[in-house]
Amino acid sequence: MNPKSKQALLSIFTFFIISLTFTAHAFVMRNLSLAELAGFSQSVFTGTVSQVETGVEVSGKEAIRYTFNVMECLKGNCTNGTVSFNQLANSLVGAPKFKKDTVYTIFLARESREGFTNPVALEQGVVGMAYQDNRWVIPDNAQNRGFVNKLAQSKTHTSLTRSVNGKSSYVTLDALKQAIE
N or C end of the chain: which has fewer CB within 10 A? Predict the structure, then answer.
């Protein structure tokens, strides 16, 4: 192999390694505390997915538009009963997908200039809800990825307590609201 070929091969290899490093770094995300999730959020709300529109065009790009019927506005401009937002379609690994008629608490980031947004820290900003003991709660289950334990261990939000009801533990929506305020 001649010296120019070796240099070209080395350049390609170096570019490839640097590209992998940046790609890997972009997808490594540390767990955020409740204070960070709330602080980075434009709005925080609990609501039911009422509409999922695919193939919506926003700023010349394909989007998915989600509309939620808001049950509880915990922070921001979500008091009018509904929240709609556009998520860039097929763009982010780890971007959450929402199921119609399912209840979530969403920590929603500020909208970009192009009209797109995502939950803060992608899946960390999405909490599945359950109706239990005549109230909405955040169950300690696989879907919530240890959210209840993280909140229960938080030193800055001691108002969040784990309640044990049979085998499941949970945090109430009221406790979460108090912690965010």
Answer: N
Burial class for 23, CB neighbours closer than 10 Å (0-12, 13-18, 19+): exposed
Ranges assigned E (strand) in 31-102: 43-58, 61-75, 82-88
What token pair was written down for 107?
């920590």
Rounded CA gap, 105 and 177, in Å?
11
Cβ proximity of 14 and 6 under 8 Å = no
The model's pLDDT over 10-52, given as tens digits with 9 standing for 90+, comes to: 445 444 444 443 344 344 567 788 888 889 999 999 999 999 9
Dihedral angle of Cα 144, 38, 27, 93, to the nearest 10 degrees: 60
Please provide the distance, in angstroms rounded to a whole number, between the alpha carbons at the two ends of the chain. 67
Strands (E), 4-59: 43-58
Q: In which residue are the tokens 């199921």 written?
A: 99
- Kindly report, residue by residue over 60-107, the tens digit of the pLDDT: 999 999 999 999 999 998 888 999 999 988 766 668 889 999 999 999
The token duo for 39 is 């602080």
